[in-house]
Automatic annotation (TrEMBL), chains A, B, C:
<feature type="transmembrane region" description="Helical">
    <location>
        <begin position="324"/>
        <end position="341"/>
    </location>
</feature>
<keyword id="KW-0924">Ammonia transport</keyword>
<feature type="domain" description="Ammonium transporter AmtB-like">
    <location>
        <begin position="71"/>
        <end position="447"/>
    </location>
</feature>
<dbReference type="Pfam" id="PF00909">
    <property type="entry name" value="Ammonium_transp"/>
</dbReference>
<feature type="transmembrane region" description="Helical">
    <location>
        <begin position="106"/>
        <end position="125"/>
    </location>
</feature>
<feature type="transmembrane region" description="Helical">
    <location>
        <begin position="412"/>
        <end position="432"/>
    </location>
</feature>
<dbReference type="InterPro" id="IPR002229">
    <property type="entry name" value="RhesusRHD"/>
</dbReference>
<feature type="transmembrane region" description="Helical">
    <location>
        <begin position="199"/>
        <end position="217"/>
    </location>
</feature>
<feature type="transmembrane region" description="Helical">
    <location>
        <begin position="81"/>
        <end position="99"/>
    </location>
</feature>
<comment type="subunit">
    <text>Homotrimer.</text>
</comment>
<keyword id="KW-0812">Transmembrane</keyword>
<keyword id="KW-1133">Transmembrane helix</keyword>
<keyword id="KW-1003">Cell membrane</keyword>
<feature type="transmembrane region" description="Helical">
    <location>
        <begin position="229"/>
        <end position="248"/>
    </location>
</feature>
<feature type="transmembrane region" description="Helical">
    <location>
        <begin position="22"/>
        <end position="45"/>
    </location>
</feature>
<feature type="transmembrane region" description="Helical">
    <location>
        <begin position="268"/>
        <end position="287"/>
    </location>
</feature>
<keyword id="KW-0813">Transport</keyword>
Amino acid sequence: MGNCCERAANFFGPQKNTYIRVSLPAVCFVWQIAMVVLFGVFIRYDEESDEKGWNEFKKSHNITSNIENDFYFRYPSFQDVHVMIFVGFGFLMTFLKRYSFGGVGFNFLIAAFGLQWALLMQGWFHALDPVTGKITIGIESLINADFCCAGSLIAYGALLGKVSPVQLMVVTLFGVTLFAVEEYIILDLFHCRDAGGAMVIHTFGGYYGLAISWVLYRPNLNLSKRLNGSVYHSDLFAMIGALFLWMFWPSFNSAITNHGAGQHRTVINTYLALASCVLTTFAISSMSQKKGKLDMVHIQNASLAAGVAMGTAAELMITPYGSIIVGFCCGIISTFGYLYVTPFLEKKLKLQDTCGIHNLHAVPGMLGGFVGAIVAATATEEIYGKEGLIETFDLTGKFENRTMSTQGGYQAAGTCVAIAFGLVGGVCVGFILRFPIWGDPADDFCFDDEAYWEYCFAQFMSHIVVYYQLLEALS
Amino acid sequence: MGNCCERAANFFGPQKNTYIRVSLPAVCFVWQIAMVVLFGVFIRYDEESDEKGWNEFKKSHNITSNIENDFYFRYPSFQDVHVMIFVGFGFLMTFLKRYSFGGVGFNFLIAAFGLQWALLMQGWFHALDPVTGKITIGIESLINADFCCAGSLIAYGALLGKVSPVQLMVVTLFGVTLFAVEEYIILDLFHCRDAGGAMVIHTFGGYYGLAISWVLYRPNLNLSKRLNGSVYHSDLFAMIGALFLWMFWPSFNSAITNHGAGQHRTVINTYLALASCVLTTFAISSMSQKKGKLDMVHIQNASLAAGVAMGTAAELMITPYGSIIVGFCCGIISTFGYLYVTPFLEKKLKLQDTCGIHNLHAVPGMLGGFVGAIVAATATEEIYGKEGLIETFDLTGKFENRTMSTQGGYQAAGTCVAIAFGLVGGVCVGFILRFPIWGDPADDFCFDDEAYWEYCFAQFMSHIVVYYQLLEALS
Amino acid sequence: MGNCCERAANFFGPQKNTYIRVSLPAVCFVWQIAMVVLFGVFIRYDEESDEKGWNEFKKSHNITSNIENDFYFRYPSFQDVHVMIFVGFGFLMTFLKRYSFGGVGFNFLIAAFGLQWALLMQGWFHALDPVTGKITIGIESLINADFCCAGSLIAYGALLGKVSPVQLMVVTLFGVTLFAVEEYIILDLFHCRDAGGAMVIHTFGGYYGLAISWVLYRPNLNLSKRLNGSVYHSDLFAMIGALFLWMFWPSFNSAITNHGAGQHRTVINTYLALASCVLTTFAISSMSQKKGKLDMVHIQNASLAAGVAMGTAAELMITPYGSIIVGFCCGIISTFGYLYVTPFLEKKLKLQDTCGIHNLHAVPGMLGGFVGAIVAATATEEIYGKEGLIETFDLTGKFENRTMSTQGGYQAAGTCVAIAFGLVGGVCVGFILRFPIWGDPADDFCFDDEAYWEYCFAQFMSHIVVYYQLLEALS
């Protein structure tokens, strides 16, 4: 059987360069040991997860019930976000007929590394105690760490099937680092609101992945064309991912918004926008084919674009019909993107974007940033109440006197920062990934789990071989 | 390859009538634009999701903590219900070997449309402010909207594989409308309790679907017989749907029950009934086959019947062993239904019920309505406490003096109303769907994703062709 | 077609002994009726789920808000645990190419029975009211019942594909009984802390399954070797189970820990350990193969070992970096187990462990027990605060004066009790299962759904037959 496996594997030419027996374990071990050391030096429980700290916190804040612990406000949303990161993103990327292991497996690896590194990077920028020099973490840190991974997982969508797991670890290392910096600029310096990360997660992640993919352009990728597609059941696996993303997106956008009405409203807005997006996605998908048939790629992807585009505005008073309008437009824009823009980018800009993250993350994220800017600029005390306006935009301290139009301007500027970080960071990381040491597959060996997974595809391939031999014999 | 696709597609005869390139986009766009307008006119945030409103609400109700926002009582259950609607119902309907895209995809479409229309319809009947003329929505509205969709999704179960997506939109439009009316009669006028919707969701949805299917009877459906069945992996996909329904049914029944002991008890009752139901389902399934082998259809469906049948009674003091007895009976009744009643209905009543919703929703729902009536009629102050009885049955205002036996009578009457609405409404909608404009497939082209999905089954079919050619050649 | 099915089924020899048409229904019916009777005699709602009781409880405890009901502290975690039991364990066991129905289906059956029996057994030992003679149940009881099932489901992992469903019911009946006794000894008599069940669930369940499998050794199991493996899509189904287990393990470990900081900290610790474990699992998996390719078996299983190993210590102040170190070691140990220990056990100890529970549950569980002992022994008032130490270890009543080193000693002793109960109990149950009345499959008919599921594999098999015939003809 082993012999048969090997013969089958050689059928389409020799495997180049995909030897990762040294590099992958080395990267995993060294970086994980670094995590142990850095966590030992820096990371501690925050006062709501520390046994002693919480008892003191309750006394000092006159809290009588444990239900006031932030844990109970955030944990259900956290678990939904966690499912989106690992099952949502992971299974959405199983749609390729023979790269499903790589889709869900490498997603697992890079998210597991990324969230540790994110706790450190985000901690240094946002939660470093100047006195003790420690970072304290709680449930909100875990949600933010998952968010931070999402940026790199989005980038993976553009690279799916064309890079090695070692390269993906590098993408994640730099992706998380860049994320933490741009997030610091956008959320802290610019004092923008972006609870669902339309700017910091989706715009950044989208352009980061596209820039990397552009640098890593493969002129002969059509040699792997036969595998760059789905089969019936791989599309169903991808549908699992798509639906969990779609269903839990209200949790994604509301996970770190303000307690009470803030989380409540964010859920309503996201829920409505996503529902609306589904209908326009089906409409455009059906219109685009001569017999009106639907395309699974659109249903799996474009129907999610509204969640991205509501990332900033969902926590604001965008109104229910405002949300529906955003969803309406996103379904159209994103499906058009899959139909016309992705092929255009590939032909004209030499940009190969396997999952079409340009249409699902980059453009809707950018759109979401600007929608957020408009909704922020038009916010008034009449709508939010004096107290509500201050709470929603956190206009305290040195931002006390910021006007709403200024806020809107900063929101728009934040979107531009996210794009810039994505593009520039992506190009730099792309050049790093071009060193010939990472074990990436040859052009004729892309989109193939055979490269990195111990699995015998002989049975699968032999079926195809048999079929063609028979067709020939019968003709 | 395109040529090969076409040849393969023509193998079993020409495709009739399934051109939906105009009708589906038209329906999606027009109805979605109507939603935008109607939401703009009618829908606003309620006081717990409105920034200003919540701050005022807290002051006027002397609430100090945001955790008192209804959001934190309902959101975890809401997300479970959401998963049931989209992954539960969706994947349960992927069991057909070649209609999995249609099962999960059209479920997605009609639920996304249905929940928007449900927010409006239910709002007009239950939450229209007479002063402002606005409907205010919060987390409980979203749960109810999901519930309302469930009625139409159940109906889809009877129609699976035999209708076009445009027809399904029509089914949903009328289904949601009828639902809102019967719900208003049962819950408001009759003042019944039906938190999990045994009557309003399952009985109505079941008979609605059956009546439609009866009107749409296809005498030559056996021409599509070869596709009306499962393959190994499609049954596993369906098992994903079945398990998520089974696991989250306690959330379904408890999502809108009273805070505190009400939600708590509903979960316990539903959990126990479902567990009990699994054992009798396995028992009857094994007894029914000569070698004692189990049938996946029973396991996927009949084990859920207890959740349906507990829809009304779960929030009442039915006692743990009462719940187990209900589950015990449901497993038996539902499995017998799959074994004997569904074939009987098809042969004698000319009623084609693809998913067997008669056994999973219609009969258990009706049963649940009557169980609820009995448990309500036997409720006493001794069991509930004076305060508890008033709270549980909401006996305030003009219902202050209603006796428990009267309540029981109204519950029973409510079940009959649900049946009547389902049957009459379904027959009417069925006749509408018989107009030859909807793009439904011909009798020999049912249960086939080829009709509405851009997908090349040539590879799949060629395998079968090769196999038969070879069998012939060898014989 | 029936004829063809039968021919195909006889292809690899006659089916022996798998007639369960009498025994399975009998066991299901009789045991379920026993449940009805026992629940009727013993089980009642507790004061937080009883309508009258909760109103009285609120008054007597001066509680004004329903949010103080334990339901709101536990329900989100409960649902996550529920998903782990039914989808997590169920789908993890679908990895075999032709035993996926049995994996997920029998998991469903035994968990549904086990949780009812667990409510009774655990109730008698922990919650029997000496005055009324009743067991009162609430949300925590449901979580504990799910936990209790997990012990038997773990044991099923070692037996997967080699036993009949009737045998599995017997395994569960005794498994739950033994579990309740060892749990009583460890948690009540020894007064150990073991919120995530490293000892009581995983160590016990692991050794229980291994001991049964050892007694049921099948010398000719290699006759079924062709089916003891995965295919591409069955590995993806298993990945669904693995990911839901991985994502929800923080909920598993925190589901019954103390409110407030306790649950909060448990989640953080488990989350970090699991992330760390993924990286070392990938590293060792890659190192073990000559080309550095990854093995799905390791990714699906070894990456979960950290959750097991944190079962005891996660609720303690193990520190974030302590958690990461535990995860680091577990990934290495567990993957080595799959590579070297499982083959060794099979060859030398005649121990056939289908899912490798030795590496995923038995060893990590034992390790977790000892880690917990160390962390407990080193606990100080300085770290926990005086109040926190008493709360965390529940040092009240007769345990008021227990020192931390004594506590550590008891924790270690508890681990040994769990091992002893697993091994001795497993051997006894194994001998019971050797009676020739249970309908288990012959050695050449293992790992095959054909034995217990009404399903025609003719199509599947014919493809293989065709393939070999053609290969021969062409050579």
